[in-house]
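Hey, can you fold this one?
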Amino acid sequence: MYAKNPRHILLHSEFTYARPTLSLTDGFYFNTHTAPETLVMLLNRLSETFLNKAWFRMQLETTDGDFHLNLDPAELKFMYKYRRDTLFMLYMDAITSDGQWVNIRLSFHPLEQGPNGEAEITSHQAEDILQMIHDHIGIPPHEKIIPAALVQRFPFDPESFSVELLTDVFEEISRNYLHRIPPVAFLSVPGGVSYTGLSFYQLGKKFSLYEGRVAILSAGITKVVTGQTLSLMFEFCPHETQPVGTLNMIWGDTRKQDAVWQLIRRRMNL
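Sure. Predicted structure:
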C-alpha cells in the first residue's frame, strides 16, 4: 500500500542534487599590467563556460574623469595602447536570462593597501567562476601592488633658489609625467602671513615681495579623482642647521616617481 501512494511517488521524483545558487563578493589582487588580450580571453571563457554566451559590457573610467561606456575589445585595446597612464577603473558585467550575474571591477591606481580587484557573482557555479577569474588575472596577495610613497629630503642653497627655475621644472613634470595637471603653490613668511592656492605667476610676485623673508614655499600637483599627489616643499628657516627641501610623491608608479625625483635633482642642481 505504501509504495502505491501517488503523493509519495511524486515527492520522491522531484528530489534533485542540483547545486544551489550562491551570491558572493570577493576581493582579490590583480596585475595592473595585465594585457587587454588576457582580459578579453577571460570574458570569452566565462561567457561560453558559465553564462550561456551572455555578452559582457565593459565600462572604463579614466583619471581625468572620462567615462567610456559599452566598450568592445578593439576599443579596450586602443585605450590600453594610447591612454595606459590614465586608466583608473574598469568595470565588466554580464547577466543571463535565468538571473546569473558576474560583475568584475579592476582598479589601476589603488592608493590604499588591499585588494585592487573585486568580483560579485550570483550563480550556481559561483565558486568555479571565481576560480577562473583568479587563474587568469589574480596574483598572490603577498606581492606588493602599491609602491610606497617616495619621500626625499635634501639640503638646498636659498641664495641660488629661483622661482623661475622651479616653474620650468614643474611645467616639465606636468607635461611629461603627470597628465598636464596644473600645479598650485603655497608661501608663508614669519609673522603668520601665508598665501595658498597660488598660481606660479602669483608665486613669483609674492616671492619677490618677501624675498629674504620667506619661511616656507611649496608647490604641488594633485589628481583629484584618484588622490595621487606630488608635493615639493622648501623650508628656508628650519630648525635644523641648514635649509632643507622635501619631495613627497604618491603616484602609483615607482618608475615615474624615480624619474620625477631625478629630474628635480638634475634641473635644480641638488
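Confidence is low (pLDDT under 50) at residues 1-17. Let me know if you want another pass with a different chain boundary.
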